[in-house]
Amino acid sequence: MPKATEGPCNVPKPGVLDFINKAKWDAWNALGSLPKETARHNYVDLVSSLSASSESSIQVTPAADRKQPGSDALVVTSQDGITTITLNRPDKKNALTTQMYHDIMLALEAASKDDSAITVLTGNGDYYCSGNDLTNFTDIPPGGVEEKARSGAVLLRDFVDRFIDFPKPLVAVVNGPAVGISVTILGLFDIVYATDRATFHTPFSHLGQSPEGCSSYTFPKIMGPSKATEMLVFGKKLTAREACTQGLVTEVFPDSTFQKEVWVRLKAYSKLPPNAMRISKQVIRNTEKEKLHAINAEESNILRERWLSDECMNAVVSFLSKKAKL
Ligand SMILES: CCCCC/C=C/CC(=O)SCCNC(=O)CCNC(=O)[C@H](O)C(C)(C)COP(=O)(O)OP(=O)(O)OC[C@H]1O[C@@H](n2cnc3c(N)ncnc32)[C@H](O)[C@@H]1OP(=O)(O)O
C-alpha cells in the first residue's frame, strides 16, 4: 500500500507489461497529494476492485501453479502406427501456454524415437489452436521484461528447432481455426489436412509482432512473396480452400466427414514401411535444415525485440483487458 504509508507517488513507473504493479502505480500516482488517511481508504478500495477484476480479465497465474507435464492440456496417444499429440484446452481455444511449449517438445522427442510411423498434431474442440497464450506475457520473472523476452526467444527457437529436425512424417490435422504460431509452423509439416471450417490467420502486425516458425522463409517459398506478405504483414485470414490453393494446406475435407476421412487415410499411410518413409522425408527436407535453423534463430531474435516494443505491449494489454480480439 505505497500511498497509504509513504505519501505522494515517488517511484518510477513500472513497465507496461508489469500489469499489477503498473495498475497500482497508476492508482497511486492518480492520488496526487491526498492526505495519507484518504489515500489509505482509496487504496484499499482500488486493490479490492483490482483483485475482483483480475478474476475475469488480467489473471496472472504464477508459473508454479501452471499445469505440469502429464496434465490434460496436452494428450499424447499411440495407436495403429500413429502417435497423436492433441492440444487440449478447448475452453481457451487451445492457446499455447509456456508449459505446453515444453510438453510439445518432450512429446516430439518421444515420438521421434517410438515405434510409430507417423506423428500427428491436432486440437480438441472447435479450434485447432489460437496461437501463443497471451497471458504468457504476464508471467514476469525477477529479471523484468527484458529477461522475459530473452527467455521467450530461447524457448521459441528451441520449440521451432524440434519441428525442423523431426525425422518422421509429421501431419497437421487442422480441426478448426488456426492462429499465429500454429499457422507459421505448418510450413515445417509434411502434410496438412484441414476441415473446411478451418481458417489460417497470422495477425502479427496487429499484435506488434513479426513472423516466426520459419514462415518468413517457408511462406514465400510455398505461396510466393506477395501472398505471403498479405498473410504475414497485413494479417489476411485465409479460408481452408484459399490456404489449399496457395499450397499451405494439402487437402480440405467437409467438416461432417473430416475426422473419418482423415484417419482412414492416415491409418493406411502408417502401414507403409516406416524406414522408407523416414529416409524419404529426410531426402526431401535435409538440404534445407541448416538454412531453416539460421532463419529460426534470426526470427526469434527479432521477436525478442518486438516483444519489448510499445506496439506489442499495447496490443497484449488491449487483449488482456478485453478491449481487443482478432
Ligand atoms: C515461447 C513463446 C513463443 C511465442 C511465439 C509467438 C507466437 C505469436 C502468435 O501466436 S500470435 C497469435 C496470438 N493469438 C491471438 O492473438 C488470439 C487471441 N484470441 C482471440 O482473438 C480470440 O480469443 C479468438 C479470435 C481466438 C476466439 O474468439 P472467440 O470469441 O471465439 O472466443 P473467446 O475470445 O471467448 O475465447 C475463449 C477463451 O479463450 C481465451 N483465449 C483465446 N485465445 C487466447 C490466446 N491466444 N491467449 C490467451 N487467451 C486466449 C479467451 O480469452 C477466452 O477466455 P475467457 O473465457 O477466460 O474469457
Automatic annotation (TrEMBL):
Could you tell me which residue ranges the ACB domain spans?
Answer: 1-56
EC number(s) stated in the UniProt entry for this protein: 5.3.3.8
**Cited InterPro entries:** Acyl-CoA-binding_protein, Acyl-CoA-binding_sf, ClpP/crotonase-like_dom_sf, ECH/Chromodomain_protein, Enoyl-CoA_hydra/iso, Enoyl-CoA_hydra_C, FERM/acyl-CoA-bd_prot_sf
Which CDD domains does the entry mention? crotonase-like (cd06558)
Report the GO molecular function annotations.
delta(3)-delta(2)-enoyl-CoA isomerase activity; fatty-acyl-CoA binding
This protein's source sits in the domain of life called: Eukaryota
Chief localization class?
other
Which reaction equation describes what this protein catalyses? a (3E)-enoyl-CoA = a 4-saturated (2E)-enoyl-CoA; (3E)-nonenoyl-CoA = (2E)-nonenoyl-CoA; a (3Z)-enoyl-CoA = a 4-saturated (2E)-enoyl-CoA
Against Pfam families, the record matches this protein to: ACBP, ECH_1
* Location of this chain's protein in the cell: Peroxisome
Q: Would you tell me the Gene Ontology cellular component terms?
A: mitochondrion; peroxisome
User: Keywords in UniProt for this one?
Assistant: Isomerase, Peroxisome
Q: PANTHER family given for it?
A: ENOYL-COA DELTA ISOMERASE 2 (PTHR43684:SF1), PTHR43684
Identify this protein by name: Delta(3)-Delta(2)-enoyl-CoA isomerase
Gene from which this protein is expressed: ECI2
